[in-house]
Q: What sequence folds into this?
């Protein structure tokens, strides 16, 4: 019995891991679609700009009529969590536009995180997007 358990542990330890592609940030290539992101709340996201100034637009349909965003570098929150109200409630899509300025790190990755908050303020339906890599 113990031998079988140890064999299973060894197999699990050396089995190749698969990454969950839906949680990888998208590169700033201009446009992201809902199907591409696998995200039911955000679609048609467009990103433009660089060097610390970015314009983000798209469509959102959050359940409570609001979504949130923040910008981080993987270690630090560079733009604290901001709330965005939408014109419509789920399931209707609302257009949104954001213009943000942030001191871009000299070296590293700048990530925009779009998300919704569910029960108990839990972050749900997050969509990370790489704004800039240096």
A:
């Amino acid at each position: 019995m113990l031998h079988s358990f140890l064999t299973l542990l060894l197999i699990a330890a050396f089995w190749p891991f698969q990454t969950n592609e839906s949680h990888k940030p998208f590169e700033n290539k201009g446009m992201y679609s809902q199907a591409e992101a696998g995200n039911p709340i955000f679609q048609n996201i467009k990103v433009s700009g660089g060097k610390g100034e970015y314009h983000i637009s798209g469509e959102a349909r959050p359940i409570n009529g609001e979504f949130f965003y923040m910008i981080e570098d993987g270690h630090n929150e560079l733009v604290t969590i901001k709330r965005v109200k939408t014109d419509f409630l789920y399931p209707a899509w609302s257009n949104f536009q954001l213009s943000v300025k942030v001191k871009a790190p000299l070296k590293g990755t700048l990530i925009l995180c779009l998300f919704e908050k569910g029960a108990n303020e839990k972050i749900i339906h997050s969509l990370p997007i790489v704004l800039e890599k240096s």
In short: The mean pLDDT is 78. The domain at 25-133 is CATH 2.60.40.10 (Immunoglobulin-like).
